[in-house]
Here is the input.
Amino acid sequence: MQNPLKDLVERSAFGVCSYLGDKMGISPSRVRMYFCYVSFLTIGSPVVIYLFAAFWLNIKNYLRRSRNAIWH
Here is the structure.
């Protein structure tokens, strides 16, 4: 059984690290780890990039769903 807190965080984290990990062919947990390291080193500036990527992925999924709804 996995840690329920880890499951909650992964479901509510917008899927940005999973998406990047899948695109680059590496584990999403490794992407999360590097993101945390870079955030500490640069005093949080990657958080803005993460939020922008989350927004962009949500818009992209929304447009894809609405485009498919027209043709069905």
